[in-house]
Amino acid sequence: RVAITAGKKVLEHKIKKGITTAKEKKTELSRNFAEITKDALPALKRIFKNKALNFLLIGDCFLFLHIGVYNFIPKIYSLIYRISTDKLGYMIGVSNIVGFGGGLFAGGLLMMKKTWTPKTLQFILMTTSFVSLPFSLGVLLYCPANSYAGIDTAYPNTHLNFNSSLLSDCNTDCLCTTAFYEPVCDGETTYFSACYAGCQIENDDGTSYSNCTCTASGRATKGDCGGLCMDTFWIAITLVTISNFFLFSGFAAHAIVYQRIVSEVDRSLAQGIRQTATRALGTLPSPLLFGWILDKFCLVWRKTKDGTSGNCWIYDIDQLVLWFIVAQTIIKLLNSTCYFLCWYYFPHPNLSNTPVERYELRNVSANDSQTSLELKGNGTGNHDHLLGVPAVDFPAAASPLLSPRLGLR
Q: Who is most buried in 29, 172, 179, 356, counting CB within 10 A?
């Protein structure tokens, strides 16, 4: 039950307008920490006893952990499809507009077409999360990885056993470094640079080398051996766009569910807990997780002559894609499972599952002693769950401070 005194409302009004007296300011500041937080523990107890809310919070943490992979999408796509990042940026931008923007727009239209109960909205959120999962596996369609001499295949003209090293007896006298990645190809195998291919002469055409001691033909051309596979890329990015569309189409329902999964008096605290939890357990660890996966499957790091290390030049593409897909799939399954459990335990016993309607505060009676306010909806049913309390009475002195019409969700 909420009791709001007229004196308190008037004081709050004066504070907002900046017309409080020194005594009134002192009175406001004199409220100690215990008075301000006296309802915090009961509110926390109510929230953490709400199973549906707890599973929704955990599911959101996994959702934000999954969304963090989008920071690495340009780098991953440029590696597995061999597309320059400047061209890739436009393609990913269009994909995001269609997937993210289209999903949000479609979800908003769906919410407008019908009056949904909160539990049905949670079912929609759960369904869109599950449906988006198989489409996200489109990244499994990627270009075949190159074979690199000295990394995953032996040098053709060498008498040493393959030991996964860029150095060989055909280039040990060349004093090569990994400071710059300038791949060359002999038709079948890619070499880290012309130096590691043992090439001694750059031809006049500027695109090829001759007298290469490490290649089978003695010649090499600039660039790696793998070509573009745009058909595969377009199929993969289409599937990922569909996945994003379904994922974000449930966000409109998600926003409403958060307002109806707790009583109104606990909504602010629930939102604060959600923001803190999703940032601490989702947004922050996500770059650490996926960055660790990237570093784990690096095959050749940049290293200058003075021993300074830098970024990674070559990755184990097969293992990199596999681990990214496994990590995303596990996270998405946990996210969808938590949304299912939220739907299963929804609503909380103290809340109602009436359809989402628009309500207004209407002044229904007034006399010398008090002004009463009631909630009026465009449907029928008990609406006490909106406030989490049976009624709200405002003394007459406080009524001028209230807006005559307020739209509530």
A: 356
Integer Cα distance of 176 and 160 in angstroms: 18
Estimate the share of the chain in helix, then strand, then coil, as percent rounded to the nearest 5. Answer: 55, 15, 35
pLDDT band at 408 (very low <50, low <70, confident <90, very high): very low
CA distance 262 to 386: 9
Q: Which residue has the higher pLDDT, 203 or 366?
A: 203
Phi, psi of 394, deg, nearest 5: -115, 125
CA-to-CA distance for 226 and 382, rounded, in angstroms? Answer: 67
- Phi, psi angle pair for 375, to nearest 5°: -90, 130
Tokens 């999903």 correspond to 103
Two tokens at 26?
């002192």
CA distance linking residue 131 with residue 35, whole number of Å: 48
- The separation between CA 62 and the C-alpha centre of its own chain, rounded to angstroms, equals 9
Integer CA distances (angstroms), 395 to 10, 74, 330, 404, in order = 11, 60, 55, 15
Q: Tell me which residue of 264, 262, 275, 263 sits closest to 406, measured CA to CA.
A: 264
Distance, in Å, from the CA atom of 80 to the CA atom of 83, rounded to the nearest integer, reads 8
